Task: structure prediction
Amino acid sequence: MDSISLIGFMGSGKSSVGKELARLLPDHMFIDLDDYIEDMLGKTIPEIFEQGGEEAFRALEKDALESIFIKGEMSGKPCILSLGGGTVTTEACRRIVRRNTICFYLRASIDTLVYNLETWPGDRPMLQSEKDLRSRVEELMASRSEVYETTAHSIIDVDGNDYPAVALEIARSLDKHTDNGLKDI
Ligand code: S3P
Result:
């Protein structure tokens, strides 16, 4: 059984879809990379950004992925991994993700992203900006959308679909990629 990763912009639903997917694929362990890093360091993501900036955070994302896949911290157990919105902007992380997981890009329109980020704001250092939220999302998406599209093995358009529906679409598409032991879904 292969591990699965979810990539996409902040607010695209990676964590929520990952949890739904974990219910459909109980042999997989769910990991949210941001939570994993916070537990690893005993610090919150905003604290990590405050103390070391984006560069330090990107290095931690790579360390975390290495622990999971290269040092085998999960003892080879397949996982469903919700990545941070910027994880695959780093070449080393992209390589680990492509090699060790079937990677799905949850692609959302700017409207959906802005709606979700306004409705569930969270504390996201990358969105702290002089610019209004929409302009900041547009700016970051302009530099990231190609990276998401070229890193993913498969693209799932999420606009208008709720999280369980997106999870189901991913689960059903898995047999195209591999035998993931899916039953009755
Ligand atoms: C980031 C996204 C966040 C988190 C960090 C940086 C980004 O994760 O990893 O604040 O650069 O897009 P979510 O996508 O889960 O919000």
